[in-house]
Amino acid sequence: MDQHPIPRQITTFEFKLIGFMTLRQFLYLVIFIPLGFIVFKIFPIPIINIFLGLILVLVGFSLAFVPINDRPLEVWIRNFIKRLNSPTQYFFHKNNPPIRIFQNLYFAGDPHLVTTHIDSQEKLAKYMTKSRTINRGDVRKQAIQNIMKNPTVIVKPQSGGQPAGRSAALSFSPPAAEVKEPFFTGTVKNNKKIPLPGILIYVKDTNNQPLRLLKTNPHGVFATYSSLADGEYMFEIKDPKGSYFFDTIKIKIDSSDKKPLELFSKEIL
User: What is the pTM of this model?
Assistant: First the structure.
């Protein structure tokens, strides 16, 4: 098998600027050798001063010329100190359930699309009610299914006075499709009448207690299906990003008035 040389690590290569030494090695020697000589001269005890001076000189030579696993000694010392200061325990934080006030949020789309969808559902329900017929061959099966779905079944005997126990035709009236409309809707815009998405609307009562928390969709529209008592409410509007600012507005809510609300920001530019 052919032998191939292993590429060298060139990212940590240092040029030899002073003789056979790099600038980092030269600085270590320049700092620690004079420091060892100073300790040797200043320390009063004869044998200990030689010992301390030699230790400082050896530390300088080790930092300059002794690598461990191709890493300088200073890297090992720095990682050791960092490891001593880093935490040794990590705690798992389970995802908490959402706050109660955020559970029943409704994000509506374009009010015109919502109205068109509701009208389509009403027309489809009326058409299905008129065109629904019961096949005589499946009367008994249909009657059992209707009794299971709707207990209020009206029994009508057939013509001829036959008893209802054998050949009675069961007729039922399917419940009308219930279409729920939003209680009120609105739009949040800036001073250029551009819809603003992601705006939070806090609906509060006169005692400053929050009742609803709504958020505008990508079209700047907010809505709620939960009804409120007629009266005046405080609408506190906030932008989580802090780009737009709003005044707290007092609005009178009337269940008979379904006109969409329009809220504008108060920035100058």
Answer: 0.35
